[in-house]
Design a protein that fits this description.
6 strands; Ig-like_fold; 124 residues; alpha+beta; glycoprotein; transmembrane helix; signal
Length: 124
């Protein structure tokens, strides 16, 4: 990346084309770059040279190592929602069926007078 008179010139070719963003502040002495959509192929050692003419025309280069690690899989909200639906939905259906049977379809459990059970012994 080349920065000249408050304007940055990101790379137009190579592996970082379209993925480098200038985040620096020249007045504050900050020459930070941001690499967008980093991948494991971006691992490596890179050299950076900052020059600020006319005071600094030589600018000693420095090396930095970039290590990209795979992102850990995290439990997403959608997985939690699906699991809750698989547990709560059948539970709600069963509860509604049981409540419906209890409230709406109650049978008269009292036996009519004079009715004798087949196992009841009648004294005579």
């Amino acid at each position: 990346v080349f920065h000249f008179f408050s304007k940055s010139y990101p790379p137009t070719e190579g592996q970082f084309k379209g993925r480098i963003k200038w985040n620096g502040d020249i007045a504050g002495g900050d020459a930070s770059l941001q690499l967008l959509n980093a991948s494991l192929n971006d691992n490596g050692t890179f050299t950076c040279a900052v020059r600020n003419p006319p005071q600094d025309v030589h600018g000693s280069p420095c090396q930095m190592e970039l290590r990209v690690t795979p992102r850990e899989l995290s439990l997403r909200f959608s997985y939690v929602a699906v699991l809750m639906a698989l547990i709560l939905l059948p539970s709600a259906v069963i509860t509604l069926v049981l409540l419906g049977r209890m409230c709406c379809c109650q049978r008269d459990t009292t036996l009519p007078q004079g009715y004798h059970s087949p196992i009841e012994v009648i004294e005579g």
